[in-house]
Design goal:
Chains A, B: Pfam families: Methyltransf_7 (PF03492). Chains A, B: This is S-adenosylmethionine-dependent methyltransferase. Chains A, B: InterPro entries: MeTrfase_7, MeTrfase_capping, SAM-dependent_MTases_sf. Chains A, B: One of its GO terms (molecular function) is metal ion binding. 2 copies of one chain form a homodimer. Chain A has 374 residues and is α/β, with parallel strands linked by helices. The first copy, chain A, has one domain (31-370): Rossmann fold (3-Layer(aba) Sandwich), CATH 3.40.50. Chain A has helices spanning 35-43, 45-55, 58-61, 80-99, 120-125, 191-215, 239-256, 262-266, 277-286, 312-328, 333-349, 351-357; strands spanning 67-73, 107-114, 134-139, 152-158, 216-227, 290-298, 363-370. The first copy, chain A, has a 7-stranded mixed β-sheet with strand order 3-2-1-4-5-7-6, sandwiched between helices. In chain A, helix 6 crosses helix 9 (277-286). Chain A is globular, with a radius of gyration of 21 Å. The A-B interface holds A 64-67, 107-109, 111, 116-117, 119-121, 124-125, 127, 134-140, 145-151 and B 64-67, 107-109, 111, 116-117, 119-121, 124-125, 127, 134-140, 145-151.
Chain lengths: 374, 374
């Protein structure tokens, strides 16, 4: 088994930004390959549930509306988003019933957000038929405004905020100190490349929080579950870092055979960044509209033991479902197919290191609360 | 040129209910074949604009929220829905600015609704990039609840409410007096068939109004533009009636050749009903939550003159974009293709009668207002 630690969603529609997960319900679909994202999200569930229960003042949230409004930012195509939203509704209902046992339960409206190229058709067709909420889809980047002022009560975003709004500046510029020659990510790259990624991510998170500060009612909650990296650790030490380095070296080998140019590899960079908790806290604390209620790091693959190993074929299938769209935008289909085929072979050769690296705390959760003032 | 008077949308996902317009942006798409729906909607525009301006009390609508919420029920895939929503926003903005010249303009949120099988992906990708509203898609039947209590200010529904939620009772039952043998619609059918259609339509409109009564704030507005028929007129006299009769006779001819069975034709009925204004008024007045502010009938093809004629090839293309999905659900692809090919020939033979019938008032609009009490 494997924790893929790939995104539940990819969010901007920029020319050089990420592209969404595979749509539909077929064998290559994200819908059928998001089991590990589900497990990853569940690891932190108890802590998050407790924070919501403790902090959400249902009475004050309902002071100006009879409806509780939730949003999943970066929902992809399901089914994980349905479980996550229902879970939050259950928590709110329980709290409400214990506080106001004789009052009727409020109505819920859930907004499913992802970029406009996400497969909303699949999402809408797979909505739970007996859901206890009014459902709506919201297309657009969550790094900008998506909702009216003070209209949301709980915002949830799982495995989405590590996707940058665009490829950081300078990576594809030969004259920049951040030129990322022969790499597709900042793993094992020069310090300037790492800094370009970190800066872009911090700017994006800041944009995210500024937009949410306007949209979330005072007392409202943001839950973030994200790919992470322990403070002070290098990305090349993580399983995904090893994988990105493998991908780059396979692409360079293909370039040596003349099937693509080295420039094509240089011009391809994955817009994803795993923030160390200290960096997340720094950006969040700079934003005066939110307080960090609780946070934590975890290992998303607690089941990996000496007896349970990664199935590399399955692992690469999951990676493909989430990421192949980004490769197809830059490389011909046969190049991408070969890259993923070779990836399975290369990763199998380093499976011991990969499994060991998956025991790191590469997932973090943060629960923020919108201040009542400001 | 031709007014197709086919639906802007088809709304229920029942086994025997209608299926949506063609999605995507290709040559067969509804997106590229909805020009006539646009013209049809524009005919009544001035009257509707005036009613909204006169009746909408923007101040009272904003008493509990800083956001004006609009919904287009049966929006299909665009682009007409974008024009219609922007037009209503412009009216509200003008009224607001004249009433409160120094106040900031409120925010707008627009909900685009259609059945879950509608092509929301195309709708979302074609949203105006510089829109002045927050957009959301809402999948589901508008004959049931779609939105929280008192959350909407203006509801718009154009060329959608003539689609029934399901095929009326008895049409496909040999032992029923409403058995619709050899027909695919109530045009030229026995009185019992017409009555079954009328009853289903009245029940559906009643469900629609009951759901909206809960969702629309007191003082809020519903705009309905719908296929209609002058009181007392028979559907077989209308151009669409002639067309449905042609379709049935082509299908029966194909059955005679043994390619389909006569039972297959008997079991196929188009779930669409054109309400005479008196019937619409009767249902609306029965609902105590709404008042009819204004209404009117019009001829959606005022440009049809002695010099301007219907291009039957173009006409049939428009009909196909809106309706072929329904036929494909019941008949093999080659049967449907042949039916539409023959349709063009048959309609060309009666083009004089068709054009003359298109000068009837087969479009109606209704503006209803949600009462402040009840």
């Amino acid at each position: 088994m494997a924790a893929t630690v790939v995104s539940d969603s990819i969010l901007r529609n920029d020319a050089d930004g990420p592209v969404p997960v595979n749509g539909g319900l077929g064998t290559d679909s994200y819908y059928n390959h998001s089991f590990f994202q589900k497990i990853a999200a569940n690891v932190a569930k108890d802590m998050i549930d407790e924070a919501i229960t403790k902090k959400l003042d249902v009475k004050s949230l309902l002071s100006s509306s009879s409806t509780i409004r939730l949003a999943d930012l970066g929902c992809a195509v399901g089914p994980n988003t349905f479980d996550a939203m229902q879970n939050i509704i259950d928590i709110i209902k329980q709290k409400y019933q214990s506080q106001f046992p004789t009052s009727p339960i409020p109505e819920f409206q859930v907004f499913f957000n992802d970029q406009p190229t996400n497969d909303f058709n699949t999402l809408f067709k797979s909505l739970p038929p007996k859901r206890e909420y009014f459902a709506a889809g919201v297309p657009g980047s969550f790094y900008g405004r998506l909702f009216p002022d003070s209209s949301l009560h709980v915002v949830y975003s799982s495995y989405s905020l590590h996707w940058l709004s665009k490829v950081p500046k300078g990576l594809e510029d030969k004259n920049s100190p951040a030129w990322n020659k022969g790499k597709i990510h900042y793993a094992s790259a020069p310090e300037e490349v790492l800094r370009a990624y970190a800066t872009q991510w911090a700017n994006d998170l800041n944009d995210f929080l500024n937009a949410r500060a306007q949209e979330i009612m005072p007392g409202g909650i943001i839950v973030v579950i994200t790919h992470s990296i322990p403070d002070g650790m290098e990305y090349a030490e993580l399983a995904n870092g090893m994988m990105y380095n493998c991908m780059a070296s396979i692409l360079l080998d293909i370039a040596k055979r003349g099937l693509i140019s080295e420039e094509q590899v240089d011009a391809f960079n994955l817009p994803t960044y795993a923030p160390p908790p200290a960096e997340f806290v720094s950006v969040a604390e700079n934003n005066e509209c939110f307080n960090i209620v609780t946070m934590g790091e975890s290992n998303p693959s607690p089941w990996l033991t000496d007896d349970v190993h990664v199935d590399m074929n399955e692992f690469v299938s999951h990676i493909r479902a989430a990421m192949e769209g980004m490769f197809f935008k830059h490389f011909a289909r046969e190049i991408v197919n070969e890259m993923f085929e070779q990836l399975e072979v290369k990763l199998s050769e380093i499976s011991v290191e990969m499994e060991s690296a998956y025991k790191d705390k590469i997932q973090a959760y943060y629960v923020l609360q919108r201040n009542y003032s400001g």
